[in-house]
Amino acid sequence: MPMKMPKDKFMSSVKVGEKGQIVIPKEVREMFAIEPGDMLLLLADRERGIAIVDNEGFLAMANEMTNLSRREKKEAEDRDSH
């Protein structure tokens, strides 16, 4: 059941069906422009819980972090060699 939240936030409980499926509420699908066939990434951690994120956005962020790490490593190597 949806709770009263600020415009850019949403919180609701969802029920897990017999096949382990959940329904992403319409409000959330609209908020994130989630369409049938979109690929989402499910992240799970026993201590922190479950998160569902946009697959493309997450991969872009991961690539950016990897590139940043590579640049920092190269800069450090360049400093050490001088």
End-to-end CA span: 62 Å
Q: Helix coverage percent of residues?
A: 40-55%
Q: Percent of residues in beta strands?
A: 5-15%
Main sheet characteristics: 2 strands, antiparallel
* Tally of DSSP β-strands: 2
Individual helix count: 2
> Uncertain spans, ≥5 residues at pLDDT below 50?
none
The number of domains is 2
* Helix-strand string: HEEH
Q: How does this model look, in words?
A:
The structure is a single chain. The chain is an alpha+beta fold and 82 residues long. The chain has two domains: 1-35, no CATH class; 39-81. 40% of the residues lie in helices and 15% in strands. A two-stranded antiparallel sheet has the order 1-2. A hairpin with a 3-residue loop joins strand 1 and strand 2 (49-54). The longest helix has 27 residues, at 55-81. The mean pLDDT is 84.
Features:
82 residues; alpha+beta; 2 domains; two-stranded antiparallel sheet; elongated
Would you spell out the secondary-structure blueprint of this structure?
Blueprint lengths: L25 H6 L8 E6 L3 E6 H27 L1
Antiparallel strand pairs: 1-2
